[in-house]
Design brief:
Immunoglobulin-like, mainly beta, 38% strand, four-stranded antiparallel sheet, five-stranded mixed sheet, 256 residues
């Protein structure tokens, strides 16, 4: 966009549109530069303009007579593409309350850029598969067959603070394995998810995966905690009609 000749009055605002249309899943960087000059063509007076410090030289343009001809504002812009949101079947992690379950969840990252100049060759939809074995490790770096090393960062995001407070301490997640297809530009990440609910619930979360070379992928995950097992059966024997029968039992708190 070029706004050459745009006039601004005192305290007037100027909206600058920035359009981002990525064609590959990699990070893009640009700079928005605004150059302001006086409408009458005069310069701003400035003493010792020939000895401007380094920071000021990058933000002004100096005229031949020593005055400041223009002022520059420079805004860096970083564009991070996000995979198209399609209706995905959520990976379901189900467990009885007061028990613990581990589940392997595999997510497929499409259109991964394996080279700075590479274009994606596969445009298939993102899929979720929950039945793949893996070896344990903390993070994955794709190096074999790729010209640049890629690191994947991940987190679980929740719809509200209330859901996060309920699930945050009950869910654990680790990236345990990665598989890659250099021809299609597809990377499959396998996570081990631990779910240990303390009461019945049904909450949704979003697994967000970020690649350091650029790109964000999101996958739905559904956590379901069913009713817990019965702790014990209490039998009360009647001592007679219209008479109270009492039985005692102890309850132990799980916290202080």
């Amino acid at each position: 966009f070029n706004f050459t000749g745009t006039r601004l009055g005192p305290k007037e605002k100027l909206d600058i549109p920035v359009l981002f249309m990525p064609d590959t899943m990699k990070m893009y960087e640009a700079v928005v530069v605004i150059h302001v000059m006086r409408e009458n063509g005069e310069n701003w007076p400035y003493e010792d303009s020939t000895e401007l410090n380094k920071d000021l030289k990058s933000s002004v343009t100096v005229a031949e007579n020593g005055g400041i001809q223009g002022i520059l504002w420079i805004y860096p812009v970083r564009g991070i593409p996000e995979a198209p949101q399609r209706k995905l079947v959520p990976a379901v992690v189900r467990c009885r309350a007061r028990q613990r379950v581990e589940r392997r969840v595999a997510v497929q990252l499409t259109h991964v850029v394996t080279d700075a100049s590479a274009m994606p060759t596969a445009r298939n939809s993102v899929m979720v598969n929950t039945n793949k074995p893996a070896n344990t490790q903390e993070e994955a770096q794709v190096t074999d067959g790729f010209s640049t090393t890629m690191e994947f960062l991940y987190e679980l995001q929740y719809k509200s603070k209330e859901i996060k407070s309920q699930l945050g301490a009950l869910v654990g997640m680790h990236l345990v394995q990665e598989e890659r297809d250099t021809e299609s530009g597809t990377v499959t990440l396998i996570f081990n998810i631990v779910f240990a609910p303390n009461k019945p619930m049904r909450n949704e979360a979003t697994l967000v995966v970020r690649c350091t070379t650029g790109g964000i992928w999101k996958f739905p995950v559904l956590f379901i905690a069913t009713e817990p097992e019965v702790d014990d059966v209490i039998n009360i024997e009647a001592v007679g009609l219209n008479k109270e029968s009492i039985v005692g039992f102890k309850l132990t708190s799980q916290t202080r």
